[in-house]
TrEMBL record:
It comes from Rubroshorea leprosula. It is a multi-pass membrane protein. Involved in cellular auxin homeostasis by regulating auxin metabolism. Regulates intracellular auxin accumulation at the endoplasmic reticulum and thus auxin availability for nuclear auxin signaling. This is Uncharacterized protein. Keywords: Auxin signaling pathway, Endoplasmic reticulum, Membrane, Transmembrane, Transmembrane helix, Transport. GO terms for cellular component: endoplasmic reticulum membrane. PANTHER family: PTHR31651, SYMPORTER, PUTATIVE-RELATED (PTHR31651:SF43). Belongs to the auxin efflux carrier (TC 2.A.69.2) family.
Length: 425
């Protein structure tokens, strides 16, 4: 298969996503107004609390087993590497472009978290269903594709609400004070010796001065001022105690603002339940299979979950409309994010995945290798916009970034997908 055929093969699923996104954009225009701000808010809540958890639960419960989990153990590591490398590159971009403090968390978040699960749920099955698919039998390919995509979506949901959200929250708090934390410059009086220690210090000094008048030799004087080193030692202890107290105060401040419900988002809970059902055979037999007594429950959840991908894609298109009207993000920042997401990270991903396959960490499964490579080349996750709404910072700027990155993703994602298919097959 030549490169042109590979390019056309890779273009089909990306084009499918693009068309549905365009429909969402059209429905959000003022003339149609079916996906206006209120409608988007309600639909986004429906996806967040119901559709996406149902999708994750149903796919994981059906496709993830103990056997498949053994072959997928590297995927959480791979996704974590995309987040860490993206965060590091985003931090470098923030320093180079001198990004304003209130946008630093947004920029780093867009560089780190990618739209892995949602795009994979569309792209992988579509590639399997193509007549000239290089991934073998379509039915087997589709089953494995659902497992890989669902597993990616579940793992990313855990990482976003436990890592990306906390990171963006920290930067948002720094941005409120223009990046200056008043605790970093404490009052010099605070870090000196405490009241009780200062009284002992003054008393010992008076005694030393009085006794020095009655003593003629230097030996007596040195004996009387012996408590001085102890007071200095007390001063050092006071500094240590104040430093530890500050650490405790910062930890308490962080944990008091990060709500448990953010760490245990509905998608995370659905992933835990789905893993449990898929891995525990007795529970699995109750819900999954033609003869399962509770198969109606699973079928209902799967039916609800099937609506998640179309709704999410429509929301993506509707949110891009805000980017057409928004300002506040400089061209260097957008260009830097695009370079990181579509050039640097995919290139690093090729080296990491090929090395993992070479050393036997990942088995030589073409569809699995393609999935791991694809995770490095996706545009920013749409959950970044949700986090901006929760934090009340950078919402319009996020729309501008999403508009340009998703517009560029049409070309770059197709190009990288074609290259990845050629590389693994």
């Amino acid at each position: 298969m030549d490169f042109l055929d590979l390019f056309i093969l890779a273009l089909m699923p990306v084009l499918k996503v693009l068309l549905v996104t365009a429909v969402g954009l059209f429905l959000a225009t003022d003339r149609v107004n079916l996906l206006g701000p209120d409608a988007r808010s309600h639909l986004n809540s429906l996806v967040f609390y119901l559709l996406s958890p149902a999708l994750i639960f149903s796919n994981l419960a059906e496709t993830v087993t103990m056997e498949s989990l053994r072959s997928l153990w590297f995927m959480p590591v791979n996704i974590l590497l995309t987040l860490i490398l993206g965060s590091l590159l985003g931090w470098i971009l923030v320093k180079i472009t001198k990004t304003p403090p209130h946008l630093q968390g947004l920029v780093i978040g867009c560089c780190s978290a990618g739209n892995i699960g949602n795009l994979l749920l569309v792209v992988l099955p579509e590639l399997c269903e193509e007549s000239n698919s290089p991934f073998g039998d379509s039915s087997t390919c589709s089953t494995n594709a659902e497992a890989y995509a669902s597993f990616s979506l579940a793992i990313l949901a855990v990482y976003i609400w436990s890592y990306v959200y906390i990171m963006m929250w920290v930067y948002a708090k720094k941005g409120e004070g223009n990046g200056i934390d008043k605790d970093e410059h404490p009052d010099p009086v605070v870090v000196t010796i405490s009241g009780g220690e200062s009284e002992d210090f003054l008393q010992s000094s008076r005694e030393a001065l009085l006794s020095s008048k009655s003593l003629e030799g230097t030996e007596g004087l040195s004996d009387q001022i012996e408590p001085l080193p102890q007071s200095i030692e007390g001063k050092e202890k006071g500094k240590v105690l104040v430093f530890l107290e500050k650490i405790k105060e910062r930890v308490n401040n962080l944990t008091s603002h990060i709500k448990l419900k953010m760490l245990l988002a509905p998608s995370t809970i659905a992933a835990i339940v789905g893993f449990t059902i898929g891995l525990v055979s007795p529970i699995r037999k109750l819900l999954i299979g033609d003869s399962a007594p509770l198969r109606t429950i699973y079928s209902s959840a799967a039916l609800i979950g099937n609506a998640a991908i179309p709704c999410i894609t429509l929301i993506i298109g509707a949110n891009l409309l805000k980017g057409l009207r928004g300002y506040g993000v400089g061209a260097p920042i957008i260009a830097g994010i695009a370079a990181i997401k579509f050039i640097i990270l995919p290139a690093l991903g090729v080296g990491i995945v090929k090395a993992a396959n070479h050393f036997g960490i990942v088995e030589s499964n073409s569809l699995l290798l393609f999935t791991l490579l694809f995770q490095y080349a996706v545009p920013p996750a749409m959950n970044i916009g949700t986090i901006c709404q929760l934090l009340g910072a950078g919402q319009s700027e996020c729309s501008v970034i999403m508009l340009w990155t998703y517009a560029l993703a049409t070309f770059f994602l197709t190009l990288w997908s074609a290259f990845f298919i050629w590389l693994v097959t």
